[in-house]
Amino acid sequence: MKQSPTKSNGSPTLFTIQTPLNHEIIVRRSKFIAFLHPATSKEETLSILQKIKRDHWSAVHHCYAYRLGVKGLEYRMSDDGEPSGTAGKPILFAIQKSELTNVILIVVRYFGGVKLGIGPLSRAYLDTSLQVINAAVRVPMVQMASLDVHCTYDDVSRVIGVFEEAGAKYDVMYADAVTFAVVVEASKVALLTTQIIERTNSRAGYSNVTLED
After folding, report:
1. Mind giving me the DSSP string for 127-180?
2. For residue 32, what are the contacts with CB-CB under 8 A and spacing of at least 6?
3. Of 22, 44, 135, 156, which one's alpha carbon is 20 to 30 angstroms from that of 50?
4. Segment 141-176, tens digit of pLDDT
5. Sheet architecture: strand order including 178-185
6. CATH top-level class for 144-211?
């Protein structure tokens, strides 16, 4: 069996996607359309869900599951009126089985007039979910870290140069000194902080280093 790559701490690497996609199947005249989207927060998943509901307002069910975080610890599922456990649970299972996180998967059902029964209904939601996931290009999750960097006005250009070399994102706040709210790959924090101190002759510093969950 092919094994997933692992992080340096021994835990398995999870994956996400970068491009939304959808997939449709027909089961006994009922149409199931799966929508797989990247998302990084609960608020973003709800926004995507509401858009799908608006676009498919005439569908009888809008079932979904999402999983968030670099370790995939935040998740939720909904049967949206289907029999308990027949929709949200298979959708979430497909996400977890595929080692995905930072995604929401919504399966819209247009009822075709034939009741499927508990088993076939669950399989329809699972099959639709797995098929859209199998069509996706997965990318490894990269753990990010946030930190605050403080410097004088004279050192701003030097500090920004370090950020750019590390591929870091930042917001800046100007007061008596300059403070940057920085987000960077966790593996680059040590080099980034070392370079900031060295290039400013220790005039700049940092604080509040936090790894994302």
Report:
1. HHHHHHHHTS-EEE---EEEEEEEE-GGGHHHHHHHHHHHT-EEEEEESSSEEE
2. 24, 25, 26, 107, 108, 109, 124, 125, 128
3. 135
4. 888 899 999 999 999 999 999 999 999 999 999 999
5. 169-174, 178-185, 144-151, 205-211
6. alpha beta
Global pTM reads: 0.74
Single-letter amino acid code for the residue at 62: H
Q: Which residue has the tokens 């008596």?
A: 176
Measuring CA to CA, which residue among 141, 197, 147, 164 is closest to residue 16? 141
pLDDT in tens, 13-25: 899 998 999 999 9
Q: Which residues pair with 133 in a beta bridge?
A: none
How far apart CA 152 and CA 179 sit, in angstroms, is: 9
Q: What's the sign of the alpha-carbon dihedral 206, 211, 212, 213?
A: negative
Q: Which CATH architecture has domain 15-140?
A: 2-Layer Sandwich (3.30)
Among all chains, which residue has been given the structure tokens 């975080």?
Answer: 69
What token pair was written down for 198? Answer: 């060295």
**Ranges of each domain in the chain:** 15-140, 144-211
97: three-class secondary structure by DSSP: helix
Which residue bears the tokens 């076939």? Answer: 120
Cβ contacts of 100 within 8 Å, gap of 6 or more: 14, 15, 16, 17, 67, 72, 133, 138
Q: What is the 3-state composition of the chain as percent helix, strand, coil, each rounded to the nearest 5?
A: 30, 35, 30
Q: List, in sequence order, every residue forming a beta bridge with 73; answer none if it has no partner.
A: none
